[in-house]
Amino acid sequence: MATHEYTQIFILGTIFAFCDAFGIGANDVANSFATSVSSGTLSLKQACVVAIFTEFLGAFLLGANTAETIRGGIVKLSYFEGRPDLLMLGMMTSVAGSAAWVIFATTWGWPVSTTHSITGAVMGMGIAAFGKDAVVWGWNGVSKIISSWFLSPVIAAIVSAIIFLLTKYLVLRSENSFRRGLVAIPFYFFLAFFVNMSLILYRSRPNTQKNNWPSRKILWVAAVVAGGVSILSYIFYAKWLERKILKKEDLKWYHIPLAPFIKYRAPPVVRSDIEKQGIRDESRPPYSTRQVSQEKGIFSRVKGFLLHGVNKDVRNLDNENLYDMHERAEKFDDQTEYLFNFIQILSAVAASFAHGSNDVANAVGPYATIYQVWQKGSIPGSESPVPTWVLAFGSFGIDCGLVLYGYHIMRSLGNNITYTTASRAFCAELGTSLTVVTASKLSLPISTTHCITGSMAGVGLCNGDIHAVNWRMYAFCFFSWAMTLPAAGLVSGLFYSLIAFSPHQ
């Protein structure tokens, strides 16, 4: 095959890979931030702003390792020897099949696994091309991935439940829970930073053995950094919380580094509703004709389209069908719950960063193969690096999907799984991050959808009431997961067969 041949496949592959990344952002990233939004710690708009940076950086900086597992660990590339054009076509139909299913599922509010989707799509393509023997069924291929689907939600649920039970009995149920929480804050900072630093150091190691840090050294460095941050959090952040919440001082977030040093700041004066409304000049209409016409202009329409997905109410707190489930959840002191707001944002950032490093592979793994075959005219080696611009391309597609279409999944989840507060969401997100960190160390493309769902189940069961969890919603999730693998595989396989085996001259 000559270089830059079949440019039409490369162009179609670029379009479908972006659509697949868009679906990942709309479905999987929405799953990752559903706990933060449903607890009220972040608004939907704030979650999107945070995710734009964390998902992009996680995918761009650390997404290459898992991308290599996706593109070369499902089908046997040896079957395509001498036919790089077929491999290029197969990867194009794979991202097309995955994108079609994920976007379809997102439209209906189905929280599916994009890892399932791309795996099924590549398997369907391989079977359509060369039969079932073309698929790597052993532990180094599909079996390793499938086993992680069952293990990850169970492990995430156990880890999250342990963290929340410790928090519940040592902090939340204490008579002086707020003071206990202030003491516990440094410990939570330590956990969050230790997990995040371990992920960064594990995933940023070079593929060669030279200058490759051993695991023990990585854990020690992460522990030292996390320890330093936890000490700083006790000195500055805990003091800021004490002054702001207990003493009700007029402190802003940017006063955190100055909390031990600045003088007493009197609480803000609360104005009456009449003062807040002010007096309007009756001699002037509230809106001029020119202003109304500007609001209906092209700029306002474009702005409305771009912000359409971030102005939705997705928390489901007023849903009468969920009232009984929410009432079964134990409620804790509001001031103590407030302690977890900032640390929960931090855990959401860690989870989002981990998600970007892991799930960008679902789109850019096959697309990197398409690009390298088109560029070189031959099948790339298993150790061929993923181009940096491909990672950036996939990261941008993920961000677009979350901002424009992620509200569908957040609305479906919201508080539908179990009643969510800042403390519960923090424990669920931290449990998910710990599970994903372990998977990233092993270059194992697990499903973050399974992890966060398992984590929420574990936290919900800690209420001591089995009905505090919406099992009907869980059954719905499991059904959509079961449909993902065959549906994406069928679309990809049919698409491949239609092109590869159609009559041609």
TrEMBL record:
InterPro entries: Phos_transporter. One of its GO terms (molecular function) is phosphate transmembrane transporter activity. It is a multi-pass membrane protein. It is found in: Membrane. The chain crosses the membrane at residues 6-26, 47-66, 86-106, 145-170, 182-202, 218-238, 338-356, 386-407, 473-499. Keywords: Membrane, Phosphate transport, Transmembrane, Transmembrane helix, Transport. One of its GO terms (biological process) is phosphate ion transmembrane transport. One of its GO terms (cellular component) is membrane. Pfam families: PHO4. Belongs to the inorganic phosphate transporter (PiT) (TC 2.A.20) family. Sodium-phosphate symporter. This is Phosphate transporter. It comes from Zancudomyces culisetae (Gut fungus).
